[in-house]
Request: fold
Amino acid sequence: MWRHSDLSITRAVRHRVKALDPERPPERFFEALRKADERLLALDYDGTLAPFTARREDAALYPGLAPLLAAILQQETRIAFVTGRPAEDLAARIPLKGVEIFGAHGQEHIAPSGRLTRAPLSTSSRLWLDASALRIAAAGFGHALERKYGTVAIHWRGARPDDRVQLEKLARDMAGELPADIQGLAFDGGYEFRVRGRDKGTAIADLIARHPQAIMAYLGDDMTDEDAFIALPCTGLGVLVRDKLRDTHAHLWLRPPKELHTFLRSWMTAVTS
Ligand SMILES: [Mg+2]
Reply:
C-alpha cells in the first residue's frame, strides 16, 4: 500500500519525466527499489552527468550532483560508472570513493578496491588501432584523435565546419575497410573504432552476474548507451538523459540537469521511506 512519502515520489517522477514504456512505469520501479535488499545505480558520464564541452578534458559534473551521488552511495546503493572514457580518466573526475568504473566501453574495469583490469587485446587488433591512430594524425587531425585501450576515436565537437567535413570523410573511409575484429560506431560528437566483444551492454551483464538480486537503473544519453538499456534485467529501468527525445530502448526520458536531480532525489527518498 502507498504511503504519503511513496506518493510524493510517484508524483515527482510522473510529472517531471516522461515514461516511454507503459510496462515499466517509474513508480513501480521506485516501489521495487524501496523494498530491495540490494540496489545498483549505473551511470554514463559525458552528456548524462556532465554537460558536453568543446574540450573533452573540461567536462565536469553538473553542479549539485556530487553531493547527491555521495548521499545515495552512503545509503547503501552500489554505484557503477560505464563510460567511453579511459577508466582512470573517469576515476580522476568523480569525487566518490568505493564505486566501480567500466572504462573504454567495458574494455577496462576499476573495482571498488581501486584495482584496474583490462580485457585481453590481440596483437592484430592493437596493430590496427595503432596504424589507424597514425593515419588520423598523418592527415593533420592529431588534435581530434583519442587513443584509448581497445579504441581509437575521432572527435569533431567544436571543429570548424570544413574540418568536420574532412573528419567525417576520414571516418567513413576508415569504416569502409574494417577488419572483422573491429567495429565502427558513431557517437554524439564523433566516430569510434573499437575492438569487438566488449561494450556498455557487457558491462551491465557483468554487474547483473555479480548482483543478480539488485534492483538497478542505468542512465545514459548516447547511442552507445542503447547496449546498456537492452542488457538491463526485466526489473531494471533504462533512463535516457538528454534534451531531445530520440528512438531508444530506455523506459524513461528526462532532461538534464533539473529532471536528473529530481530522479536522484526520488531515488534517495525511495530508499529512506
Ligand atoms: Mg554519454
